[in-house]
């Protein structure tokens, strides 16, 4: 039988997922379910029928005896869809604040390593006849290329679910411990690089082993220089999370683009920079004219009029956001020059599989973004910002129209805040995931994003 081993980066994510760093790609969808079209049984049936499109969602990770090699993917012979799809209800009143608190609680929980590494929650009791679906997929599970995020395949472009061929899935037999050990020893004999990786893994430096392997194949870049930690964005984090959201109009970013001659990406970064500046000022953090927040910006290519449901690559680079600059137009100018200067350093990460399936691609693109961001070493940036364009037409799950979609990006090592964006149906939705202890005032950021947007629009006028 063929043995499928985790890639070096997958193994790194799997090893990092411990303690205060649950490494998953999350997404929160808000749906109009006033007529009750979507219930638990219907959602379970849709997901189970479409698992054939994301086969890794029925596989689990199995360690190799004695740590002789990276873990392997094996079919879960006891796969139970009921374990992975769960129900949750909000206490009255089921408002957005209670929903965000529930998402924060679910975000803090690690996935069960004895099963396939994903969970989906149908959250009921939301006001206005709405319901929500919160999905967690381990970062090792989704690579955006061979393995997509499940949200990519359960959405439809119409209220009637598209037909999917019958799936007669039977789990493959699992290799024995002896077979795994013999395969690992054979690889060690054939490839000296496997031995180097094993030595590093044995001494506990898994991250260095993965980074070295990744650099050797030329797929990811190493760190150029360090950046000082910036309170409250960097430092040890707790096990608990906070989650909040912001909603903006895509048309406003187009107005900024036309009025100030920039790209939509630059307009988004300028709005975020203005909000971060106001937030740091509100916390009485010392700012000077040269103060910057260094962000890893693994943004997918954003078209001037984004209408496609997929993208061919995700580009990553570090950029200094000028939070010390009080003038919004000058901030935007600095950002525009920086993105132009970094254009030749962008590292494309292919996502060719995304175009093969109809559906909603941003969650898979966010997974690619997190993978690319993780290739930068520790202490080389303050913040991760991910952005994934989505379709500009309504999407549905089981007949329920999706109203909003928010990414929930993981916190990397010593990162107290992550900002994810997804555009959908004329809006740009921000998902703000933060450490509960370090960012107790996360709730002010949505308002500050709105104020920063108004400031930029006023500059255009």
Automatic annotation (TrEMBL):
EC number, as in UniProt: 2.3.1.20
Domain of life: Bacteria
UniProt keyword Acyltransferase present: yes
Sequence ranges assigned to domain O-acyltransferase WSD1 C-terminal in this UniProt record: 314-456
Pathway entry: Glycerolipid metabolism; triacylglycerol biosynthesis; Lipid metabolism
Top EC class of this enzyme: transferase
A Pfam match: WS_DGAT_C
Reaction equation(s) it catalyzes: an acyl-CoA + a 1,2-diacyl-sn-glycerol = a triacyl-sn-glycerol + CoA
Domain annotation O-acyltransferase WSD1-like N-terminal: ranges: 6-267
InterPro entries for this protein: Acyl_transf_WS/DGAT, O-acyltransferase_WSD1-like, O-acyltransferase_WSD1_C, O-acyltransferase_WSD1_N
Keyword tags: Acyltransferase, Glycerol metabolism, Lipid biosynthesis, Lipid metabolism, Transferase
NCBIfam families tied to this protein: acyl_WS_DGAT (TIGR02946)
Family listed: Belongs to the long-chain O-acyltransferase family.
PANTHER family (UniProt xref): O-ACYLTRANSFERASE (WSD1-LIKE) FAMILY PROTEIN, WAX ESTER SYNTHASE_DIACYLGLYCEROL ACYLTRANSFERASE 4-RELATED
Protein name according to UniProt: Diacylglycerol O-acyltransferase
Annotated organism of origin: Skermania pinensis
């Amino acid at each position: 039988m063929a043995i499928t081993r985790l890639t070096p980066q997958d193994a790194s994510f799997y090893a990092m997922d411990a303690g205060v760093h649950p490494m998953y790609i999350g997404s929160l969808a808000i749906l109009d379910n006033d007529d009750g079209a979507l219930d638990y049984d219907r959602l379970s049936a849709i997901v189970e029928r479409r698992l054939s499109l994301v086969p890794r969602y029925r596989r689990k990770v199995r360690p190799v005896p004695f740590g002789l090699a990276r873990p392997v993917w094996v079919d879960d012979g006891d796969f139970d869809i009921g374990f992975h799809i769960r129900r949750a209800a909000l206490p009255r009143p089921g408002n957005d604040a209670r929903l965000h608190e529930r998402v924060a609680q679910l975000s803090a929980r690690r996935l069960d390593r004895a099963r396939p590494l994903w969970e989906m929650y149908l959250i009921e009791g939301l006001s206005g006849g709405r319901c929500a679906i919160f999905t967690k997929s381990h970062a090792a599970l989704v690579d955006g290329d061979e393995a997509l995020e499940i949200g990519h395949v359960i959405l439809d472009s119409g209220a009637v679910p598209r037909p999917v061929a019958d799936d007669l899935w039977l789990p493959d037999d699992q290799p024995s411990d002896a077979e795994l050990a013999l395969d690992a020893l054979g690889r060690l004999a054939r490839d000296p690089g496997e031995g180097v990786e094993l030595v590093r893994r044995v001494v506990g430096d898994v991250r260095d082993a993965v980074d070295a392997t990744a650099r050797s194949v030329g797929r990811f870049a190493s760190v150029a220089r360090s950046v000082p930690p910036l309170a409250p964005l960097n430092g040890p984090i707790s096990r608990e999370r906070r989650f909040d959201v912001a909603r903006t109009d895509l048309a406003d970013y187009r107005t900024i683009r036309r009025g100030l001659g920039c790209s939509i990406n630059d307009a988004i970064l300028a709005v975020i920079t203005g909000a971060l500046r106001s937030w740091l000022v509100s916390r009485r953090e010392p700012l000077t004219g040269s103060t910057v927040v260094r962000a890893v910006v693994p943004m997918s290519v954003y078209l001037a009029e984004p209408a496609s449901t997929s993208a061919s690559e995700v580009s990553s680079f570090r950029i200094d956001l000028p939070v010390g600059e009080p003038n919004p137009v000058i901030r935007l100018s600095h950002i525009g020059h920086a993105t132009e200067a970094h254009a030749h350093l962008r590292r494309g990460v292919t996502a060719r599989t995304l175009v093969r399936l109809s559906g909603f691609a941003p969650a898979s693109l966010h997974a690619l973004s997190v993978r690319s961001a993780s290739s930068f070493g520790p202490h080389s940036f303050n913040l991760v910002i991910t952005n994934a364009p989505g379709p500009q037409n309504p999407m549905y799950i089981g007949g329920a129209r999706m109203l909003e979609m928010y990414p929930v990006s993981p916190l990397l090592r010593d990162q107290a805040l992550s900002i994810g964006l997804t555009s959908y149906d004329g809006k740009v939705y921000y998902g703000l995931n933060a450490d509960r202890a370090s960012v107790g005032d996360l709730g002010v950021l949505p308002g500050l994003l709105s104020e920063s947007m108004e400031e930029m629009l006023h500059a255009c006028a």
